[in-house]
Amino acid sequence: MKKSKRLLPVLQLKERDEKAAAKRLGEVQQELNASIKQLEELQAYRQDYYTKLSNDPKNGLPSVPATILEKYQLFLAKLNAVVERQQETIELNRQHVEAQRKNWVVANSRLKSMHDLIVRAKEEETMLLDKQEQSQIDERSQYRKREW
Questions:
Q1: What is the pLDDT of residues 26-35, one digit of tens each?
Q2: What is the predicted pLDDT for the residue at 14?
Q3: Alpha-carbon gap, residue 52 to 74, rounded angstroms
Q4: Per-residue confidence (pLDDT) for residue 66, from 0 to 100
Q5: What pTM was computed for the model?
Q6: If we measure between CA atoms, which residue out of 27, 36, 30 comes closest to residue 89?
Q7: How far is residue 52's CA from residue 46's CA, in Å, rounded to a whole number?
Q8: What would the DSSP string read from start to end of 63-79?
Q9: CA distance to 7, 57, 80, per residue, from 48 (Å)
Q10: Domains and CATH numbers, the chain
């Protein structure tokens, strides 16, 4: 069996690995995008809450009872903590995306290397076949000369 044919199962494995790495990269990228969107929503909600608090004549006046202000501050502190955790989640997701991108690059380069190896093997097989054919042609031409 020719070398190029023997390498085909390995090529199929490399294609499968590259496809799996690309799929995983897409998944973690989607997770990152969802995390970013959630952070944007949290920040918008927080901004709306700040705006409401500062523009509401009932709540924006210094005569607001301390208990209400305390509740607002507690809520805003919790909201700020959630925003910070979401930012940490985004950073972790970015690291996962970068790690998966590196995995995909490695899998893709291995696939390309296997393609190149098969192409070289086919070229060698073609050259060997050409040499064999040329050798047969030369041998036949020598027989014809002897017959004369």
A1: 999 999 999 9
A2: 95
A3: 16
A4: 79
A5: 0.73
A6: 36
A7: 10
A8: TS-HHHHHHHHHHHHHH
A9: 61, 15, 13
A10: 3-147 (1.10.287.1700)
